[in-house]
Amino acid sequence: MDKIIAPSILSADFSILGKEISDAEKSGAGWIHIDVMDGQFVPNITYGSIIVETCRKLTKLPLDVHLMIEKPEKHIEEFAKSGADYISVHAETCPHLHRVVQQIKEQKVKAGVALNPSTDPDVLKWVIEELDFVLVMSVNPGFGGQKFIKNSIEKIKIIKKMIDDKNLKTKIQVDGGVNSSTIKDISLAGADIFVAGSAIFGKDDYKKEIDELKLLAG
Ligand code: DX5
Ligand code: ZN
């Protein structure tokens, strides 16, 4: 699989969201990453399924919905119906993680589990076979523009080994502080999908930024 760049609209200009998304699409974005925050699990509040519905009308690219919310099981159906192609839930919010993953798959949506920087990858051990992707958070979730936490590289390698040892097709997505200085090492560690907010939106030339990220990711 080619490496995928997934621009996060958290850093986009919402007064021209349609243009931002179509510019990202024309510039080689693979997925559109949508960060849903509830002000409970993470300090910040962003947007809900209405924005996913809006994005669905604006692009044909897969919509990747990252749920940073408490009790995500209450909202899976709603996000699936609004047009999500991928949904990730945080392991930290799901005492019944296996069940929530099944719920996502029942909606015919690809399922991912996200891990905070301090969460041990061992939580994936009994569920990884069920996952389309694992989302390694390389910053503490809640805000764009933070600095990449270096030990995420080691965590990606551990998860990659877990996947390879079991001969699985599960992909690894990395989110937080991904830019032209960090993406090469992230990719070498085994990541397939790279979320980037501030490294793309707000810059002058999205194509130049995405081309550079893709080149460095290899
Ligand atoms: C952070 C979000 C990220 C955010 C990344 O909680 O999950 O998707 O948009 O922003 P950058 O790429 O600026 O670190
Ligand atoms: Zn995200």
Distinctive features:
eight-stranded parallel sheet; 7 helices; 32% helix; binds D-xylitol-5-phosphate; binds zinc ion
Care to describe what's here?
The structure is a single chain. With 218 residues, this protein is an alpha/beta fold. The chain contains seven helices and eight strands, in the order βαβαβαβαββαβαβα. Strands 1-8-7-6-5-4-3-2 form an eight-stranded parallel β-sheet. It is globular and about 45 Å long. The termini are close together. The site of D-xylitol-5-phosphate (DX5) has 22 residues, from strand 2 and strand 8.
Going across the biggest sheet, name each strand in turn.
1-8-7-6-5-4-3-2
| Unreliable spans | none
User: What string, H for helix and E for strand, traces the elements in order?
Assistant: EHEHEHEHEEHEHEH
- Quaternary organisation of the protein chains: single chain
Which secondary-structure class do the elements indicate? alpha/beta
Bound molecules: D-xylitol-5-phosphate, zinc ion
Distance between the termini: 11 Å
Main sheet makeup: 8 strands, parallel
User: What is the approximate shape?
Assistant: globular
- What helical percentage do the residues reach? 25-40%
Q: Report the total helices.
A: 7
Q: How many whole angstroms does the radius of gyration measure?
A: 16 Å
Kindly report the average pLDDT value.
Answer: 98
Strand coverage percent: 15-25%
User: How many strand units?
Assistant: 8
